[in-house]
Each structure stands twice: as C-alpha cells, then as structure tokens.
Amino acid sequence: MDISVVIPTYNRYEVLQRALASVYSQTHKPKEVIVIDDGSNDETSQIKKLFPQVKYIYQKNTGVSSARNLGIKNSTCNWITFLDSDDEWHKDKLALHVEFHKNNRDILMSYTDEKWIRDGIEVKIPKKFHKFGGDIFEKCLSHCIIAPSAAMMHIDLINRVGLFDESLEVCEDYEMWLRVTCRDKVGLIDEKLITKYGRSDDQLSVKFWGMDRFRVQALEKLLSLELHLEQKNLLRETLVKKYSVLLKGAIKYDKMLDIEEYKIKIERYRFE
C-alpha cells in the first residue's frame, strides 16, 4: 500500500522536526511526505536541509483546512494520512493501518487511539473522547473523537465526501468526520499510536470562546445531505442541546442578539 503523509504547519519549525522524525522511523515507510507551510515566518522553509526527501510546499496563511486540502491535491497515493506538526507517531502506526485495511478491504478509513501530553506531563483523556469503531456517527455528534493525526483515508472516500471545509476556523476535523461517518463505517486500531503535545495556551480550541458555535455550523451543514430519518433526528437533538449551551453563555455575557438567535434555533429544531 502506497501512503502519502500530509503535514500542515505554521511557525512550528522545532516540533516539525520531531513529527518528521517519527514519520521516517515508521516500520512501514510512506511513499511520500508532504509538508504544507501555511505562511510560516520562522525557519520552516529550511526543513528540506534536514529532511531532503520531503515535498515542501509554501502557501500564504489561509488556515489548516486549506493546508491539508493542498496536501491532498498534491498527493500521488491512494491512501492519505495526516499528521499535525506538533504531534508524533509511534513507530508501528502505519504498519498497523496497512494490516487493518488488508484484512478489512471494504473499510476506507481507520484511526487509532492516542496519548496526550500537556506542559510535558501525560494527562488522562476525558471519557467523552473514548474511541469507537464501526458505525460511529452517533458517537461523533457531541465532540470530535478522531484526531487528524490518528486517521488514514482512501482517496476514493475523500473524493466522495469532499475536502476539509475551509470556511471553518476550528472544528474542521469534526465536520469532516461527520460527513464520513454518516455513510461509512470507520475502523478503529485500538492502540495508542500517536502522542499529541500541547501547552494550555497554544491550542486553537482555547483561542475561540464557545466552540459549539462552530460545531452547530457543521451540524446544520450536514442537515442538507440525504440522511436517514434517524440520523436527522439525532442531528436535531444534538443541535437543541448545543444551542441550549450557547444560550446559557449568551445570557451570562448579555449578548442580546445571540440570545434571540439561539432561542429561535432551539424552537426550530425542537419542533421541526
């Protein structure tokens, strides 16, 4: 199996080296590694001096979705994997993906469990991020349980469901996996095969208040697809829950326009 690795990065030169080292230490080697530099102004452009095999592509800063999509468009393999530049793969990750898909040829996407390191210390992962395999659409509605760095997809699946939504500043992976899981089964390799690093102050998820504002965009977009009645009912129930959470926040911070909008949305999805 030929595998492309797509690594979006923005001003992460030091940790990008760690990510790339983990790729090149895989027991199953990828065919190509594509680094999409999303407008960095650090030393990222020098990465080929350390890793000459890398396919390095620079673009103006337009966001992680745009960077991943550019990597997909420039890949030459049937299987695409993603690795965020501040994450790291364990050495058998690709080999276990290959083994899984050779034994499950009807499944076009798989992902792995993960380990979290924050401020240099391993932290316990909350139960809401527990991993599941198979028909997992309902499990993906509340929160994003699939890290891009954990996933591998066949290009046929990407062509069918579409690329990452570049209009979303965050939660773009959550939205992508909803489009996948509403129609396709997903394989779980139930081992911790990636390590996600971070500091409490540098994650996109803490940059934006009210992350459910972006999740409801993804859920409402999904309602336009042809779904089973049960799936649409689950979507509406989730929208009511998330808009109710947003309403509490809007009331707390006296956001009058948001309060009215959220009340209307709650009534709409509750009785639709």
UniProtKB/TrEMBL annotation:
GO terms for molecular function: transferase activity. It comes from the Bacteria. Keywords: Transferase. The keyword Signal does not apply. Pfam families: Glycos_transf_2. Residues 4-152 form the Glycosyltransferase 2-like domain. InterPro entries: Glyco_trans_2-like (IPR001173), Glycosyltransf_2 (IPR050834), Nucleotide-diphossugar_trans (IPR029044). This is Glycosyltransferase family 2 protein.
